[in-house]
Amino acid sequence: MDGLKVNITNNAMLIQTAFKNIIRGGKRTWLNVVVLSFVLVIMVAYNGLLDGWMEESRRDTIDWESGWSQLWHPKYDKYDIFTLQDAHGIIPKDIKRLIDNGVATPILVIQASIYPHGRMQNIVLKGINTEQNILKIPSEKIKTEDEDIPAIIGTRMAKSTDLKQGDRIMIRWRDKNGVFDSRQLLITHIFETKIGSVDSDQIWININDLYQMTGMGNEATYIVLNKEAKIKSDLSGWKYKSDYFLLSDVRAMEKAERVESIIIFIILLSLALLAVYDTQTLSIFRRQKEIGTYVALGMTPKKVTSLFTLEGTTYSVLAVLFAAIWGTPLLYLFAKTGLPMPEAYTNIGLPLGEAIYPVYKITSLIKTIILLIILSAIISYIPAQKIAKQNIVYALKGKIN
Amino acid sequence: MQLMNDEPMKKQIIKIIICNMALMVSIPLIAQDGNKMLQDIDDNLSANSRIIESTMIIHGKRNDRTITSKSYTMGTDKSLTEYMSPPREKGTKMLKLSNEMWVYSPTTDRTIMISGHMLRQSVMGSDLSYEDMMDDRKLTVIYNANIEGTENYNGKDCKVLILISKVKDAAYQKQKMWVDTNYLIPLKIELYAKSGQLLKMITMSDIKQTEGRWFPMKMTYKDMLAEGDGTEWVINSITFNKQIPDYIFSKASLKK
Amino acid sequence: MFDFIYKGIIRDKKRSLLPIIVVTIGVFVVVFSDGIIGGMINNMISMTANFQTGHVKVMTRAYAKQENEKPIDLSILNAGELINQLKKDYPIVDWTPRIMFGGLLDIPDQKGETKAQGPVSGISVDFLTTGSNELKRLGIKKAIIDGTPINRPGQILVSVDFAEKYNVKPGDIVTFFGSTMYGSMTFSNFTIAGIVRFGNSMLDRGAIMIDISDARLLLDMDNAAAEIVGFLPEGKYNNEKAEEIKKSFNDKWTNNKDEYAPIMTQLMDQEMMSATLGYAKRMSLIMIVLLIIALAIVLWNAGILGGIRRYNEFGIRLAMGEEKKHIFNSLMIESLIIGIIGSILGTTLGFMACLILSRHGIDYSAVMRNVSLMMDPVIRTTITPRMLYSGTIPGIISILVGTALAGQAIYKRNTAMLFKELD
Hints:
- The structure holds three protein chains of three kinds.
- Chain A folds into two domains: 11-62 and 250-397, no CATH class; 74-237, no CATH class.
- Helix content of chain A is 48%, strand content 17%.
- Chain A is an alpha+beta fold.
- In chain A, strand 6 and strand 7 form a beta hairpin.
- Chain B is globular and about 55 Å long.
- Chain B has two domains: 9-45 and 139-225, Clam (outer membrane lipoprotein receptor (LolB), chain A); 49-55 and 62-127 and 241-254, no CATH class.
- The termini of chain B are far apart.
- The longest helix of chain B has 37 residues, at 9-45.
- Chain B is an alpha+beta fold.
- In chain C, strands 2-3-8-5-7-6 form a six-stranded mixed barrel.
- In chain C, helix 2 packs parallel to helix 13 and helix 11 packs parallel to helix 15 (392-412).
- Chain C contains 16 helices and twelve strands.
- Classes of the chains: A alpha+beta, B alpha+beta, C alpha+beta.
- At the A-C interface, helix 2 and helix 7 of A face helix 2, helix 8 and helix 11 of C.
């Protein structure tokens, strides 16, 4: 009989025996290994996809909107447009220093009206430094071409207002004293972003133009900080907003996606583990004499149970190795090509690109592997624990029920 | 003097030269005349107190609406408007005290503060914003006027007056008025943005004599940036300088 | 022979039970996941349809052009007549009016003066007409975290974050302040009936819901509607049907050049919706194919194991002179029967599980607090005819293939060695 060893007493030997039994198991071993490795690769790919998406969303939100953290004018509330009228003020010295050091950039936000299709539409006008490189807003594209004020808008705004690059639009606003002013803006660039909140219902112009237009020189509504700013609390009365606060929507979205992934994993795992269970049950049945022999040779039934549990677990270990062989190049390729997304996705504010590129995180990879191994250990243990309850004599005769 | 700040440089320079030449000749005389004329207009249009019953006709894209109201104004700080019809609007009151504003609605029996943001909205869907209504200061307080020339408007000889604000917080930095020289009443007013962009146009007609002064009984407001036919405002009756009890202009009186 | 095999299966429970269980579970998983994935896709469709687009939607042309702005001044004025006409022309569709609007919600102090006010976006639907399905359709009951749905005029539902920020609770009276469709100021007092969590951060920050009759009074929109949404029977979207209704309706109006003439759109006109759906369908197909492959491997495995297990039996049968081919054939028929029994059981179980979940659903809203996607935090399943074969065919085929592969071993047996092996 295969794998029979005398003197199986220590654990190292146990593992060795289990491994040898499995390797000699032939086709059925490989079938289990194939199924498990298949599931493992899918899980890694799926998790990678989710991690990739979330990381991209997080990165895009940081790059386009939130920066590393922000400092808000005491009266500013991002979600209450009514606060805008008063939510601006001279940038305090401490913050000015950060801006001068290139680790922060001010944004000034005012309300304004445009008249697409002859109807008044309220929008916000955002002033940004054209030389900033903290946000990805292509502020360098705000270039003066003639007497009209250069401005850039996102694709969503362009669509809802029917504006194209090179178009002009009349805009009306009030300066710091409430005096009406109105000018033509020249759209010098239309940018594409996955972050709808820097696109819809807003126009970006040079902050210096906005200073001139409103008389709010050196003022800001909020300050975007990059990583090097190292600010962790309120500064000169301006409210500190951490990345945790600024990225709360991304986090919420991640949670929802995880729930879906768990359902799919449960389905996949249950199929794979079914295969292991099925193999284990039959292999115990088939190897009754072997079991009897082990016991007769001095192994405790508990040890035999461990041996069979280990055998079952070995499937998953082999599966991990096998998955590493065939899965690695495939997953690598997948990371290169990404999962293409329907184009229309970007239009609805979901931070999705043309493709999602999976990102394989070590922690998530290890978690998946451990989960697979533990689950296959448990599922192997269930039929194997019966061994301990058997009568050795019957076992030797091959009459286990 | 003020310059339009977004004119191209060359044009500006030429303009400055021309303006200066013109001003050198005429400043003392015309400025005097312009401001004098503005004073006359103020005397005609404003009063210590005013009680007006009026009809507003709002030309919408899909229908026209008629709203009647009665308003009490005291000086430049206090005013109360009560809507009389249509039934939907009846009993709604708006109280303005300096730069604060409240609305009382009888259906809800609530007094609601109109915050800064809301002040920029249009009044009853008209081409006027709450703010347009609230800036009730005398023209002479806000503007310096120059007579630019004479033009025929609607068959009448008019002086064309250019008003440039002398205070910081004038909603419109520049106005252009066609003033009927007989009545000393503007027949047409154009309101400009700081940039020189025409924002609103008001035309006045149906000038009648009431209580010894001439007053335009019909005005038309038009937001020049938006589509539409504007808003007509017709005065049905007007009383000047009648003592209005102070309690009228209190939040408590809104509920009465 | 069939009878013999059948008896073998029934009597020798050890021989048949495990393979049947394996086939049953495998088929169950495929059928069930088919239902779940279908349910997820349906969930997405119905969320969009229920909250935004309907299966079909009628607006004025002018409104449709600027739909994003929700311009109530461009609403349908004679909505009642239009709805009646729609009901007559397309009786299978459930037509219902809706108005989305914006304004301020003002919270009074004890004297009835403004204590606080905040911007809100309003959603008004038909909650109160008998026979209206809107309450159920929008899942309001489940979304309410405090209080009750709207059950009489003058009530309002307030979103959770707004309620927290302004510290209002059911029973409080608040005033809505906004503009009518013609731009007049309008006010109305409402009693807060309930606090709602929409599960969408934007709506949760500042959305309110009122009954459409209240909205019509409030917005001076008697007999008007911003949108008339239509839902196909049982809330089941059908692209062809929706397209057909849309086309027939729009054809009637092509010659009318009025910018306020009605125009119909359907769910799939939303570029993003059709793209997503096509995508989700492709993905679900891939998922199902993957599952079927995994199932086949498992069953193949089961077949091989079954063969190995009965090594001795075949030995005896061979020794007794039974033809190898005959044993192989009987083995295949046995597998077929096991495959059929398992498939029927698995499909039935899967079907039942889907049926239960399609009625009740797994509510995972507890884990979904503050999620910013417009989605229903309930997993439901769909039931499609595909389920009848999606599990059965791979179930039967793979166990047959598995048995055939395992059965080849029979041909390798050396008769001379039989008794030695059986020792």
